[in-house]
Amino acid sequence: MNETTVFIVDDHALVRHGLRAFLNTQKDVVVIGEAENGKQAVAELRARATMQTLPDVVLMDLMMPDLDGVGAITALRKDLPDLKIVVLSSFSETERVHAALQAGATGYLLKNSDPSEISAAIRSARQDQVHLDPAVARVLAHSMRVGHGVVLSAREREVLVLVARGSSNQEIADTLFISERTARTHVSHIISKLGLASRIQAALWAIREGLVQVS
């Protein structure tokens, strides 16, 4: 895989500089820009879109002046639906996390996460994989009120476990010796069967039901 490009959005210069310094030590990650608030981030990323220099992944804080993280994610996903955005926040309250994921975040980490978790989340996001902080995943899983009484087939459970572990459709296909198209179809059917809206919600359902353990 080529280098993964990253854009950092945080209103604290020290946080931005610290993240940049750490990520630049990773051989396969390159920080290509940063913004100090959501409004600036939206403007900069829209400009980059016109120049075809968008980053692979955006690291987004939630609490910022001018335009907060949820507002920025909402605006960006409207214009740039394929942009991968990972939230890096100090807050793990269910409402904030739900708002960020509903807006279109593709991952959620806490700022006290181990640095290796941040780089892992960036790589996962680029590959369309789910990556949630374990503490956040537990909170969200326990707050879910969907999928009760639904019975999944043995194959669907296998697929769901792999989704919850962060596997992409291609990785699911390789593990189960099926085609990528079949894996994608299984994931879509599972999400529909459980009455969910996203891959992340499916992963959380698996955690809540004890199919996958989080540390």
For this entry, give a set of tags.
single chain, 215 residues, Arc Repressor Mutant, subunit A, 2 domains, 6-stranded parallel β-sheet, 6 strands, 51% helix
Topology of this protein?
Blueprint: E1 4-9, H1 13-23, E2 29-35, H2 38-50, E3 57-60, H3 69-79, E4 84-89, H4 94-103, E5 107-110, H5 115-126, E6 131-132, H6 134-143, H7 154-164, H8 169-176, H9 180-193, H10 199-208
Parallel strand pairs: 1-2, 1-3, 3-4, 4-5, 5-6
Helix pairs in contact: 2-3, 6-10, 7-8, 7-9, 7-10, 8-9
Q: What can you tell me about this protein's structure?
A:
The protein has 215 residues and is α/β, with parallel strands linked by helices. It is 51% helix and 13% strand. It has 2 domains: 4-141, 3-Layer(aba) Sandwich (Rossmann fold); 144-208, Arc Repressor Mutant, subunit A. The protein has a 6-stranded parallel sheet, with helices on both faces. Strand 5 (107-110), helix 5 (115-126) and strand 6 form a beta-alpha-beta unit. The mean pLDDT is 88.
Question: What is the compact description of this entry?
Answer:
The protein contains 10 helices and 6 strands; from the N terminus they run E-H-E-H-E-H-E-H-E-H-E-H-H-H-H-H.
Number of strands: 6
Structural shape: globular
**What is the CATH class designation of the largest domain?**
Alpha Beta
**Annotation field: number of helices:** 10
CATH superfamily of the largest domain: Response regulator
* Spatial strand sequence of the major β-sheet: 2-1-3-4-5-6
Query: What Rg do the Cα atoms give?
Result: 17 Å
Low-confidence stretches: none
CATH architecture of the largest domain: 3-Layer(aba) Sandwich
Structural category is alpha/beta
Major β-sheet annotation? 6 strands, parallel
Q: What is the end-to-end distance?
A: 28 Å
